[in-house]
Give the backbone structure.
Amino acid sequence: MEGDAHAGRFMQHRYLARKMPIMPNNRQVHLITSELFTELGSSGFNVAPGDLGENITTAGLDLTKLPLGTRLRLGHSAVVELTGLRTPCSLIDRFQKGLKRAMIMKHEQPMFRCGVLGVAKAPGEIAAGDPIIVELPSSSLKPLPAL
């Protein structure tokens, strides 16, 4: 995502970048499903699109159940390849107390529900309402790892 704090070839996550500054960046794009905001609202949290640092909000697509390597075609030309599940950071509790705990589902798979991460494979402009085409990987269907 152009201008985003996580954009770039190498890891931009503050903690990971300090440990391994030349680690490839597999966290370039953060996607969350809009249904999560509804679920959180019913649990007493007031969270809206953009509040959790996501770049893209989707609807009607269970992102966390998609396998590793899934490609999402966004709009006319943008492509994002999924690399993992976003793990909840303790900083989200600064936003709203208890929110981190609400993002962890200890007895469910996947365990984390705060969206997915991916890398940009093809550039393009996207806009609200643009279609998303899901392309599953042709090889083994491995679950998304926690990142």
